[in-house]
Fold this sequence. Notes:
The protein has 122 residues and is α+β, with helices and mostly antiparallel strands. It has two helices and five strands; from the N terminus they run αβββαββ. Helices cover 22% and strands 32% of the residues. Strands 3-2-1-4-5 form a five-stranded antiparallel sheet. The longest helix is centred in the first third of the chain and has 19 residues, at 28-46. The radius of gyration is 17 Å and the shape is globular.
Amino acid sequence: xxxxxxxxxxxxxxxxxxxxxxxxxxxxxxxxxxxxxxxxxxxxxxxxxxxxxxxxxxxxxxxxxxxxxxxxxxxxxxxxxxxxxxxxxxxxxxxxxxxxxxxxxxxxxxxxxxxxxxxxxx
Length: 122
């Protein structure tokens, strides 16, 4: 069988953008804001970040037998501050119902061309 899965083990990219600088702000929201600004600038200059506000939202759903299972999907971030993240969604969507039932989630803001990502949990 030949497929993309045959290539997985051999794929490797050297990440050369560097590590988190010692001069990074102590407040993680400041760093996230700076990186988000960088992502918007990168979109304008290179066009390789389609939507800097696209985030992966992971929630917890309960199976029919009550067992928890993670669910992830891409949504758009509309606000972020010390009170939390703002996501626009239908209040009757699976993600909204899952958050109402189990108010715990994780967000991942991936900016691959910048070799950066931010993870938020709560």
